[in-house]
Design brief:
The protein is an alpha+beta fold. About 45% of the residues lie in helices and about 15% in strands. The chain has a 4-stranded mixed beta sheet, covered by helices on one side. A 4-stranded antiparallel beta sheet has the order 2-3-7-6, with no helix packed on it. Strand 2 and strand 3 form a beta hairpin.
């Protein structure tokens, strides 16, 4: 079997490296020293550079101005963005674009996709429900009124909802179907309450009171929300991997220069063993990430639905990235807590990614449910 990336996927990585190479992780105030959000908006100049380099259109079909790449390419780009803590709604916008392209009606595709590819339309996703623990689609009700849908409810922890042009809001109907409404930011009936993430980014609790939307802006296809949720979760795993790799590199560089008893601490067995354990964590995060992304990209069958591979990837991402940043802080000693040094920023982002779209325990429970529903059988 050939596990190498395609030429197109490798070209996407090179383009991402060119865009993100000059980004400084400490380009905004430290979340440890800032009472509120570190900035009012995401990095607009960086967003423009990503659009100019065609990173925003990678996953769009050619008819919408894109390169027609898949979830694997998106995860490769997200991995590079996380190495420098790029403050962009890249995952959310791309995931919604892919979902609309796959499940949406042609009118909605024409309205959204070309503008997304050019960087003119940004989209976020209300993926955490009311509490962050229950299914996001359960937090909002949707009822049909003629050729419109009416939404009521609330979603918490929505990133950059105050500045993104649209918010993809999952909702449920009276008969239990899940759908996705693409809601304009200033639509009547929408109110936002300020929130701040662990990493210092601006979030919002989005309240919907009688929000009335034309049916053409709602994705009603079966499986659309579940596919979007799996894609968002897998993309979060890619962000965790890129962040963890950057942190381990920082730790390696520091340990190679920091001396005790006349020797670099990297030569001490206890330090080397801890770093090696974290390297193994990262390789496990990588293997499970690409398995999940491959299942989403190809639709390949398996003993469990693709959601099982996504759950395994998120379990490793949660536990692995936490261990990586904790070990990094330990090996850096007091220097790791210096707010003039970027490590504490990575630690805050790691905690945010660990909890985003469910911690490890939530995905262990989901995996258990899948195993109970789809028992694995052995053949002689």
């Amino acid at each position: 079997m050939d596990f190498t990336f395609t030429e197109e996927q490798q070209a996407a990585v090179e383009a991402a490296k060119a865009v993100f190479s000059g980004v400084a992780p400490d380009g905004v105030p430290s979340p440890a020293l800032t009472a509120g959000a570190v900035a009012d908006d995401f990095d607009r100049p960086l967003w423009a550079r990503a659009a100019a380099s065609d990173l925003l259109s990678l996953v769009l079909d050619a008819q919408y101005g894109g390169a027609g790449l898949d979830a694997i390419a998106l995860c490769l780009v997200l991995r590079e963005s996380a190495r420098v803590l790029a403050r962009l709604p890249l995952l959310e916008t791309s995931a919604v674009a892919m979902t609309v392209q796959r499940y949406g009606e042609e009118q909605l595709r024409r309205e959204l996709l070309p503008g997304i590819g050019r960087g003119e339309i940004t989209v976020t996703v209300a993926a955490h429900g009311r509490t962050g623990h229950d299914g996001a689609e359960l937090a909002v009700t949707a009822r049909q009124d003629g050729d419109h849908w009416v939404l009521d409810g609330a979603q918490t922890g929505v990133p950059w909802a105050q500045t993104c042009d649209r918010t993809a809001v999952p909702a449920h109907t009276a008969d239990g179907r899940a759908l996705i409404a693409i809601v304009p930011r200033d639509h009547p009936g929408i109110t936002l309450a300020e929130q701040v993430s662990t990493s210092g980014e601006r979030l919002a609790e989005v309240h919907l009171a009688g929000v009335r939307l034309p049916a053409s802006t709602v994705v009603e296809a079966d499986g659309a929300w579940e596919w979007l949720r799996d894609l968002l979760t897998t993309g979060t795993c890619a962000l965790a991997l890129g962040l963890g790799e950057a942190v381990l590199a920082m730790t390696s560089q520091y340990a190679g220069k920091r001396e005790q008893f006349g020797h670099p601490i990297a030569t001490f067995q206890a330090v080397a063993v801890q770093a090696a354990d974290r390297y193994i964590d990262l390789r496990a995060m990588e293997a499970t990430l690409w398995q999940a992304a491959w299942r989403i990209a190809t639709g390949a069958p398996g003993p469990l639905p693709a959601a099982g591979d996504v759950a395994v990837a998120k379990i490793w991402a949660c536990d692995g990235v936490r261990r990586v940043v904790q070990t990094a802080q330990h090996l850096h000693g007091g220097f790791g807590a210096d707010t003039d040094y970027a490590l504490h920023r990575y630690h805050a982002w790691a905690k945010q990614l660990e909890l985003s779209l469910g911690p490890a325990a939530a995905h262990e429970e989901a995996l258990g449910d899948l195993l109970a529903t789809h028992p694995l059988t052995q053949t002689a």
